[in-house]
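Notes, Module 5: Reading structure tokens.

Key idea: the token line is not a picture. It is a compressed description, and you learn to read it the same way you learned to read a sequence, by spotting repeated patterns. We will look at two proteins. The first is printed below with its tokens.
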Amino acid sequence: MKILIIEDEFRNYNRLRRMLTAYDSTMTIEGPLESVAEARQWLAVHQGTAAPDLVFADIRLSDGISFDALDMLDDATSLVFTTAYDEYALRAFQYNGLAYLMKPIEEEELHQTLDRVLKLHGDNRQDKSSDMQGLKEIVAQMRIDNYQYRERFLIPYKDGFEIVNVNDVSFICTEHKDTRVYLNTRKFYSLSMSLDELERQLNPHHFFRINRQYIVHIGSVAGLKIYFGGKLRVHLKDHNEIELMCSRERAPLLKEWLNQ
């Protein structure tokens, strides 16, 4: 069986690859493809007999969402999403016979999914094209109704609320177990949300998760400096006192994000 992994977190890719190899050491595993552009380029070449039998796809990638590449999948290819997404979408996937695995992926769930995929391929089902059509319809509907990135924050402040447009945000960080959104004016507000939640809600073309503690707006990045071990130092406009460190693994994604 030929498997393709679309995933922009190398740690997640390595973990999934190890579990797949443990399940069946004869599998051919391709990837990881870390961006929509890379996935589209790979799938454009690998069609017909060269197409993968199974694709594991994360939804959120460095340059957008994987849906924008999945419409190029061969009709005979099975698809498994490896991400957390909203309840409506998960019900839709389930109804149409499409699999999903919540991260972190559990080995038992992965094995059950692989057993199911192998059975479908063994049965040589005739309705695979209808499954793909179901996927395409779901993706189109989600683009219209269910994948709207956050545009503003309604933040409790003193005896009322203030509205903050995401375009006015310089960066978001965690400080002393508190999530804070800093504006270009240097003013900040506290939010009752985690960085993981915010990362899923913010447009990846405009916001990037530098590390565990910081998410930055693309307009707030003043420049990068190369640091020891392949890391990058990130300098922010109007916040000279803050110096962020981007890991060697995420550095290529950061440079690609800034160069788009």
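Here is the second protein, with the sequence above and the tokens below, as before.
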Amino acid sequence: MGIRIVEGRRPKPGDEDVYIFNEFTRKKYPWLKVDQPAPDDNLVIGFCENIKYSSFRNDDTNQTMAFLIPGKKFAQWGWEWRNFVNVRISAGADKVEVIRSLQKTMEKFTPGHDFNFRFMDEVLDANYRNELRFTKQILLFSLIAIAISLTGVFGLTMFESEYRKKEIGIRKIMGSSTTQILYMFNRRYILILAGCFIVAAPFGWWIGQHWLQGFAEKTPVTPWIFILSFLLVTLITMITITVQSWKNANENPANSIKTE
């Protein structure tokens, strides 16, 4: 199955009644040793890496796991306890033909039983489908919110630049440069953005932490995520304001202050 062996060896043809445990089992029971019998007298031949067999909401790394090669000692158990069989197929294999072959093979061992074949990629897709859908929804609504915000900033800047057209002309006559005029417009909106960021960042951090509590393995919510988001939104806003205010900032002051 492609699971890495960290100590010991893989099963060989002819092995019977042998164990391969995961690393967590070795840490929990340090008296388990390679080439020594387990408490039930079955031989331990190796230890493998911890593997994840469910979603990220479950901590599989803190679960004991054993791979067993059954032999004569387990013959009396019968086949009823073996509910699942994992088979690794090569990349690009015909899945329909693989299922047919597996069905014929399993029919030899348990004739008359119904078999339910599932592919691991489909199982993983089912486990994470809701999570992927949720992240896509968050991304979509975030883009919509940014678009609405930029539309509002564009409209407000257009109104303000026209409303303060005479003020801009007077400032130009008094010696203000185009850069100073643009700074005057941008400064106001940067302060508004900073105020919104101070209010929204703690709320966003709380939502992120609350969502991550549902996962066994989670990434930390670092301040850099919020800082980079703030800088990106600020840059887009400044570009929008500068583009909109550039015309009035460079217009002839005489045209700006003349009376209709």
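Summary for the second protein:
- Residues 143 and 171 are 37 Å apart (CA to CA).
- The chain is about 55% helix and 10% strand.
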